[in-house]
Each structure stands twice: as C-alpha cells, then as structure tokens.
Amino acid sequence: MRLDYLTIFPEYFDVLEISLLGKAITQGLVEVHAHDLRRWTHDRHRTVDDTPCGGGAGMVMKPDPWGEAFDELLGTAPDPSIHVVVPTPSGVPFVQAEAEDLSGVERIVFCCGRYEGIDRRVIDYAAARWTVHELSLGDYVLNGGEVAALAVTEAVVRLVPGVIGNPESLAEESYSMGEEGLLEYPVYTRPVSWRGLDVPDVLMSGHHGRIARWRHDESVALTRLRRPDLLGPEE
Ligand code: SAM
C-alpha cells in the first residue's frame, strides 16, 4: 500500500515512523510520502490560499497547487483504483467499515485542508478521475486535515494483513464484534486484586462458555448505554 499526504505541514507525518506504523513501513508493507503543497506554488510567498469568492471571513485553499500536485503524483488519466481521502467536517462520518474497505486498496492520497477548506473544484476534479472519500472524524472542527489523515491512516494500516501480529485480535474489537459491531467488553490483566479492585471472578474461572457469555453481555450493556444506535432490534 502506498500513502501520499498533500499538506502545508509535512512535518505532521513524521510520527508515522513510530510504533506499529513505523514497523509496517520498515517491513515494506506500507510506503508513505508526505508532500509540501507549497512545492507546487510559483510566487515569492509560496501562496496556497486566497479570499473566498462571494466574500466572508477566512481564506480558501487555491486550486492551482492542488492541480499541479495531482498532475505530478497521479497524472490526469482516470483510475478508480486510486483513492483520494479528503478529511472535512462536512464529510460522511469515518467508521470502521470504511477503514476495512480502505485497508484493501493499493494507493491512497490524503488531501489535508487548512483555513476554510479547499476550493470545491479540486474535489470535483479528483472525483471525476479517482475514487474520492470525503470523511469526517467527528462532529467538531479541527484546524486542519493532518490529524484526521493520521487517524484514518492508523485505523486503516493496522488492518493491512501482516501489520498486527495476531489477526485474531482484530476480530474482537469495538465496531467489529458480532454482526452489529458492538463496543468491546471491559478488559483486565494481572494482578487479580489491585488497590482493592478485583478482576471479575468469571474471567478467572477458566470456563470458556461463561467467559464468552459474560463478555457478550458486557458488550451489549455498554453499547446500549453509550451507542444505542449500533444495536439491532433484538438486543
Ligand atoms: N470551514 C470548514 C467547515 O466549516 O466545514 C472547516 C475548515 S477547518 C478549519 C480546516 C480543515 O480542517 C478542513 O478543510 C479539514 O481538512 C480539516 N477538518 C476540520 N475538522 C475536521 C473533521 N471533523 N474531520 C475531518 N477533517 C476536519
């Protein structure tokens, strides 16, 4: 998998060298390239923004540097196997199912907006050639798309085969559990007693059936409490 980031802050992506993602890069499972969008500017100030058409506060990212960056990185020919992720608070909520889909693709280009966002024509131009995903990290506004791109990257890359040593650990996680994608049950490790708080007896019973039932019940209870929207009618 090859990941490209178009951003005015390429340093944000230095953290990709840390932890599991770093290991995935070292192992050759993932290749990452962070590009400074200002490389495709031609004026003395390396300008990437301009005032909004129609007036109003703030600045908008100009289309020209994006177009030239696309030309250099992707060419101009249509190719739906290339995925372009545009983080934006007006995008569809980014969920685990989308991370699973993206973990199977060969090429993702992240377009990180700043200011009031990117000129709409950049996204329309990309959508006419490649597969565009406008994704929101949540119902709040960040200063830029870099943190969102990193979050999407981490959720996607950990699902790439070979990145996580034991793939079974991916099946029993929040949003992957059961058919409904329940939240994960609480987890514990040793010591069995810590500061007056004990691990639930059932987990130390060695009885696999009872443990599985307890975990399922805890998942359902937690999901009902925090994310009732995830539950099917029978739960
Ligand atoms: N004017 C935009 C709006 O109201 O929808 C917000 C622009 S925001 C200050 C600048 C950039 O941050 C966006 O272009 C996007 O890349 C990123 N961003 C902000 N909030 C985000 C979110 N919830 N999810 C994904 N990206 C976000």
Structural commentary:
The protein has 235 residues and is an alpha/beta fold. The protein has 7 helices and 9 strands, in the order βαβββαβαβαβααββα. α2 runs parallel beside α4 and α3 crosses α5. The radius of gyration is 22 Å and the shape is elongated.
Quick description:
The protein has helices at residues 19-26, 63-74, 96-102, 120-127, 146-157, 168-171, 208-226; strands spanning 2-7, 31-36, 49-50, 60-61, 82-93, 107-111, 131-136, 193-194, 197-198.
Key structural traits:
two-stranded antiparallel sheet; five-stranded parallel β-sheet; 7 helices; elongated; 235 residues; alpha/beta; binds S-adenosylmethionine; 18% strand; 9 strands
Secondary-structure blueprint of this entry?
Layout: E1 2-7, H1 19-26, E2 31-36, E3 49-50, E4 60-61, H2 63-74, E5 82-93, H3 96-102, E6 107-111, H4 120-127, E7 131-136, H5 146-157, H6 168-171, E8 193-194, E9 197-198, H7 208-226
Parallel strand pairs: 1-2, 1-6, 5-6, 5-7
Antiparallel strand pairs: 3-4, 8-9
Helix pairs in contact: 2-4, 3-5
This protein binds S-adenosylmethionine (SAM).
What is the helical fraction, as a range of percent?
Answer: 25-40%
The N- to C-terminal Cα distance equals 38 Å
Question: Mean pLDDT, as a whole number?
Answer: 95
Q: Number of helical segments?
A: 7
Q: What shape does the CA trace take?
A: elongated
Instruction: Give the low-confidence spans.
Output: none
Structural class: alpha/beta
- Cα-atom Rg, whole angstroms? 22 Å
Task: Let me know the number of strands.
Answer: 9
Largest sheet: 5 strands, parallel
Strand order of the largest sheet: 2-1-6-5-7
What is the percentage of strand-forming residues? Answer: 15-25%
Write the element-wise H/E pattern from the N-terminal end onward.
Answer: EHEEEHEHEHEHHEEH
Bound molecules: S-adenosylmethionine
